[in-house]
Amino acid sequence: MKNINPILKEVLERINPSKEEIEFIENKLNKFLENLNSRIKKLKLDLQVFVGGSFAKNTLIKKGKYDIDIFLRFNESGDLSVLTKKILKGIKGVEEVHGSRDYFRVNISDNLFFEIVPVKKVANPRESDNITDLSYSHVNYVRKKIKSQKILDEIKIAKAFCHAHGCYGAESYVRGFSGYGLELLIYYYGSFEKFLKAIVKIKDKEVIDLEKLHKNKSFVLMDLNSAKLQAPIVLIDPTFKNRNVLAALSVETFRNFQKVCERFLKNPSVKLFEIQKLDLEKIKRDAEKKRYEFILLYAKTNKQEGDIAGSKLLKFYNFLTRELEEFFEIKKRGFGYDDAQNAQYFFVLKNRKEIILEGPSVKDKKNVERFKKGKKTFVKKGKIYSKKKINFSAREFIALWKNSNKKLMKDMSILSLRF
């Protein structure tokens, strides 16, 4: 294997925000916090303001647009979102974002916005109503444990690598590694390279308990509910023993990530830290050479941009995939979300030519007669079947499907689907 260090050094130089960018963020942040604290004081509210996320933990990587998390940690009871809205009243560029608890986005400039997140002050994690209520503990844990600049740099490299391969984020349309999850994993393994080497070796469920909050792996599997154990890695939150930090990580995302890790370890390259855009024209040409059908679709939802819109568009993509699979063999497919209200789907399909439809038991005379109407049928193991020719293209199928499923699309929050 090539010496990995020069490659990682070059990557770090590329992904570190410039001194000017950091100074710009700090300047805008300090002014905003001063105004925010002044408003809180006037309203005589009992709460603590703290900055969270990658910026607070010194693991921020270079982006086209920076989002800084500001948490309002309330001692107050009541609707925290309503109280936050009251505090922010009159500030320009405030947008309410709906979620399990509504929060607020403040546009500061073209490449900077602040997310104002109300959270409940909890003495015990069990008292939390929302995952964001644990953010204060997460920030403090990382800042206390990770003081080495080397480890902080390794975390940044890991985040950039995951981002390049579409597996950075716990959102339901990504189902990847959260920022906090990557921070803990790099701290646990000690470096980006060791992290990759450990990832490729995982065959079964991996259990990581940094603070030994459980007696052993068996106790972890017994103590956590089944929903938190579906992920290929169970990473116990060191601030809350009953939470898997990587519960959102899907098996599909993880297996794809393992392949990328293997590629990098076999042939390390800076290029593997760059977002690889799919060459749809090439995919189309390759499909046509093999006499497969290439379909590119644009879908739009009316749901709020971000996790809600992304998850709706992904759900519809998976639903449409299942509908197509009945008549076509799917050779390739892909989903791309633009972080707003739109998504692209592509499919490379091979016509099945013929499918077999399963009917009722031959003993069910009434339904057998209904099934036989207009069909050539045959009996196998006590059931009646028929063959159906697939004499239509995927494009024709989607066009007809769309026209006859307008209500279903509306129920799934899909405004439009077009070629």
Q: What does the model show?
A:
It is a single chain. The protein is α+β, with helices and mostly antiparallel strands and 419 residues long. The chain is built from 15 helices and 15 strands. It has helices at 5-15, 19-43, 53-56, 80-88, 135-145, 149-164, 179-189, 192-201, 217-223, 251-266, 280-289, 307-325, 365-372, 394-404, 406-411; strands at 47-51, 66-74, 94-97, 103-109, 112-120, 206-208, 233-237, 240-244, 293-301, 328-337, 342-351, 354-361, 377-380, 383-389, 414-418. It has a five-stranded mixed sheet. Strands 10-11-9-15 form a four-stranded antiparallel sheet. It has a three-stranded mixed sheet with strand order 6-7-8, covered by helices on one side.
Task: Give short descriptive properties of this protein.
alpha+beta, 4-stranded antiparallel beta sheet, 15 helices, 42% helix
The helix/strand series, from N terminus to C terminus, equals HHEHEHEEEHHHHEHEEHHEHEEEHEEHHE
Low-confidence stretches: none
What is the end-to-end distance? Answer: 45 Å
Strand order of the largest sheet: 1-2-5-4-3
* Structure annotation, total helices: 15
Beta-strand proportion:
15-25%
**Which sheet architecture does the biggest sheet show?**
5 strands, mixed
Radius of gyration, Cα only, in angstroms? 26 Å
Query: What's the rounded overall pLDDT mean?
Result: 92
- What structural class do you assign from the helix and strand content? alpha+beta
Helical coverage, percent range: 40-55%
* Total count of strands: 15
Shape: globular
